[in-house]
Structures are given as structure tokens and as C-alpha cells.
Amino acid sequence: MPNLKPKRGRPVTIDTQTAMQAVVELFRSKGFAAVSLDDLSDATGLSRPSLYRAFGNKHSMYISAMDAFGTDVMETAVPALHATDDLESALTDFYAAMLSIYYRDSRVAPGCLVFGTAPSSADDAEIKSRLEFGIEQLDELMRARISKSAPNSSASQIDTAVNLASNTLVAFSARAKSGARKRDLVVIGAQTARSITSLLKLDHSKDLVRRVR
To answer: Of 172, 151, 15, 157, which is closest to residue 96 (Cα–Cα)?
Structure first.
């Protein structure tokens, strides 16, 4: 007797990496609350069931998008911090690399997914935890790089430099989304890098004067 059971179609193959890139772009443009499942479906070209199978619910998709954005930063921008021994050049290049991520082109700036959209949803415990981790990671990154170039600086001097370096990057996301030109922010990044190195050198000079006296 012939088998009359209907044949199943081939399962749909989903390019999860490309789909997640679309999810990241959507969330960092509109934020968590303003994005609907229909928006996510339109952006990825996937049906709701396919989205759920690939990424879970909207909350899970946002958390995954935050992680994916962080990975992109670690792979494409962070290496600039270690490409040269000169601290000013390293910070300048890092800010420029981050701004290349914040801007789709020289005019359109969706900004930073983590620092730009997560604060408005920080009442959610998991989103808040990811935001806190992102800030802590940025501070640790800056502290390690600055300390390497200023081994004789005091803890308070390093703290001041780290705060300036980290807060500049966090502010760039808001400035970008508010309409600031990329080239202007690149200049501010270079100015910040110079201010940090000048501050450390100035403090070292004062220390030297005190030791001579």
C-alpha cells in the first residue's frame, strides 16, 4: 500500500547573523519600547514564528542585540586602543572607530544600542544589569589602557582620566542622535585624548616639582 502521508517541506534556513544585524539596527534606532514584533518581522524578513524560534520573544531579542552590539565593539573598535603605544593616538583612534559604529554614514546616526537606548528601559532588571556591565567594562578597558601609559600616576589621577575618557564616549551617543556631525565629534574625541594625556603629564610635572623641593 502506498504511503499517503504528506511529505514535509524543507525547514526554512535562517541566516541568524544577518537577521540579528537587522534587529540591532532597529533597536538602536527606535529603542526597546517603540519596536513592535511587526517591526522586527519587517526588518528581518522573518515571520513571527520564525523570529520566536530563532531568538525568543522581544525581550530576548533585545538582550541578544545588546550582546551582539558589544561583540561588534570589541572586535572592530577596541583593537584601536592597543594598536599604538602612544596614548593620545590610541584614544583618538578608538573614538573615531566608535563613531564609525555610531553612524551609518556621515549624516545618519542611530548611535549606541547600549548607552543610547538601554537607560530608558533600565527598570527591567536584566536590561539594567547589561547596561551596568557595559559601563563597568568600558571603565575597566579605559583604566587598563591609561594605566599602561601612566604607570607613575596616582589612583586619583587615573580615576579622573578614566572618567573623562568613558564619559566622553557615553555622551557621543546622545550627541550623535541629536544631530551632531560625525566630523565634529571626531574632533572632540581627539581633543579629549589630548586633554587626558596633557592632564597626566601636567600632574607628573607637579609631582616632579614636589619631589625636587
So the answer is: 172
Q: What is the dihedral of CA 144, 115, 103, 159, to 10 degrees?
A: -30
Question: Looking at 69, 96, 118, which one is the last position of a domain?
Answer: 69
Name, in order, each residue with C-beta under 8 angstroms of 54's C-beta and a sequence gap of 6 or more.
Answer: 14, 16, 19, 46
Grid coordinates standing for 86?
602612544
Residues 84 and 142 in one domain: yes
**Grid cell listed for 100:** 564609525
For the packed helices 58-76 and 48-55, what is the interaxial angle rounded to 10 degrees? Answer: 60
**CATH number of domain containing 38:** 1.10.10.60
* DSSP assignment string, 73-87: HHHHTGGGGGS-S-H
Query: pTM for this one?
Result: 0.84
The pLDDT value recorded for residue 208 is 35
Say how far residue 170 (Cα) sits from the centre of its chain: 9
C-beta separation of 153 from 92 below 8 A: no
d(CA 108, CA 195): 28
Look up residue 99 and give its three cell numbers: 563613531
210, exposed or middle or buried, with CB in 10 Å at 0-12, 13-18, 19+?
Answer: exposed
pLDDT digits (tens, 9 = 90+) for 139-182: 999 999 999 999 989 999 999 999 999 999 999 999 998 899 99
The helix/strand/coil state of 40 is helix
In a shared domain, residues 139 and 205: yes
